[in-house]
Amino acid sequence: MNQEKLKQLIENRYGKSISFSNECEELSMHIKKTIHAIISPQTLRRILGFINDDVVPSKRTMHYISLYCGFENIQQLTECFSQNLKNSSAEAENMELIKEFYNIELYESLDINYQRACGNIAKLIIKNPKLFQQLSGYLSKNPVSQVYFFERYPYISGLCSGYEIHLKKYLQEKKTNEAKLFGNCLLFLGAYLSNNLKDQKKYLDIINSIEKIDTIHPFPRARKIMSNLLYAHQCNDLDTIKFWTKKSFEEEKTMQKEWKNKNVFPFYHYLMVDCFNLIGDFESSFQFIKIAELDYKSYNDGTIEIGYFESFDLMKAICFYHIGLKSDAKRILSRIENSAFQFTFRNYHLIHRLKLEIMFCAKTQSAKKQKLQMELANLISQTGFIKLAL
Asked: Which long-range contacts (CB under 8 A, 24 or more apart) does 38-45 make?
């Protein structure tokens, strides 16, 4: 393996350069802390080029290095070597500026303007895979970027195209129950969208083992129920579907008092509607839409990220189409601009929009329908969301 590129990957994951031999002591401790595996400082000195004695690292050691860097195995690590990881001076300067942006003291109260500024930074990072690779170790370790990069801007559209590698680094660093639930639910969703049943089961077992989640944010709590329903639906397990459907409405009642007063946006309902649309239970989806419209604001007063109300409108249109309210669905769809979808989930929702527009095409072989089908196929290929293909 190319030693220089391997060193760069390890430094990217570690979040800073390793210039001196004695720094391998701290690196060894960090590896043990994050992936619960032991690589001695002496072995790390060989890997990083501080010792040249022709001793080759064992396969087990390289497997641990792969896990530490966010990969599943040595093969994935090796494939990453094809990327040019060396920084230009301009890129290095940009990286330092981004780090400075996240090097602030984190307060509990939400500053929506700071959050939206973080969104612009997140967009810049995600659009540049090389920059993301170089910054991912720092982003996963820094307490501010853990919240304002990974948690506030989870890159749903990239769950099957490389983002999951960096999400695993975040999970290695932040080990609270909420972080564990949030991260593994996203990894489950990626496995679902890529139609990987084996990984779905792996992540679902982790999700269902996490305790004491009653007080955390509605999004991760909703994603737990969503994960169980999606998996049960694939397995045609009707009893489990019935159990978690009932659970979804019971859970909604428990958070009404706290979250209805705290938030103007129905976070929990948003994901439940998406979930029930995915499994074809449009009556349950409609029930959650009605609760959201009765008990929460249906417009953005400036305190919610741009894109959430628009994507919720799309989910409503999908539901309305399937329960027979096609004129209402078309009216909602016509007012949604694709550019309004937030960048983190734009392609995910564009796929759903294209599928709905295709259903609205009455003529089987119309030019419009063929064009929409081609756009859909391209997005499925780009995202890897083969589960959503027609």
From this structure: 39/64, 39/65, 45/21
Per residue in 228-258, pLDDT tens?
Answer: 999 999 999 999 999 999 999 999 998 877 6
What is the C-alpha to C-alpha distance for residues 387 and 390, in angstroms, rounded to an integer?
Answer: 9
Contact 243, 198 (CB under 8 A): no
- Among the listed ranges 46-55, 119-128, 136-145, which one has the minimum average pLDDT value? 46-55
**Better-predicted residue by pLDDT, 281 or 255:** 281
pLDDT of 88 > 70? The answer is no
Q: Which residue has the tokens 């002496």?
A: 42
Q: What is this structure's pTM?
A: 0.85
Amino acid at 150: F
**Plot region of 129 (φ>0 → left; ψ -120 to 50 → alpha; else → beta):** alpha
205-228, pLDDT tens digit by residue? 999 999 989 889 999 999 999 999
pLDDT at 178: 96
Q: How far apart are CA 5 and CA 11, in angstroms?
A: 10
Q: SS3 of 12, please?
A: helix
CA-based torsion, 156, 159, 163, 167: positive or negative? positive
149 within 8 A of 102, measured Cβ to Cβ: yes
Nearest one of 281, 187, 214 to 241, comparing CA atoms: 281
Find the helix packing angle between 346-360 and 308-322, rounded to 10°: 30
| 3-state DSSP of 359-372 | HHCCCCCCHHHHHH
Provide the CA 226 distance to its chain's centre, in angstroms. Answer: 14
Q: What pLDDT score does 262 carry?
A: 63
Exposure string over 246-283, b if 16+ CB within 10 A, otherwise e: eebeebbeebeeebeeebbbbbbbbbbbbbbbbbebbe
Q: How far apart are CA 85 and CA 249, in angstroms?
A: 48
Give the residue carrying structure tokens 């499925």. 380
Tokens 């992936």 appear where?
35
Give ∠ CA 368-194-343 in degrees, rounded to 5: 65
Q: Considering the domain 3-80, what is its CATH architecture?
A: Orthogonal Bundle (1.10)
- Residue extents of the structural domains in the chain: 3-80, 87-153, 217-344, 346-390
For 78-142, give the secondary structure using H, E and C. Answer: HHHCCCCCCCCHHHHHHHHHHHHHHCCCCCCCCCHHHHHHHHHHHHHHHCCHHHHHHHHHHHHHC
Long-range contacts of 249-252 (CB under 8 A, 24+ apart): 249/287, 251/221, 251/222, 251/225, 252/288, 252/291
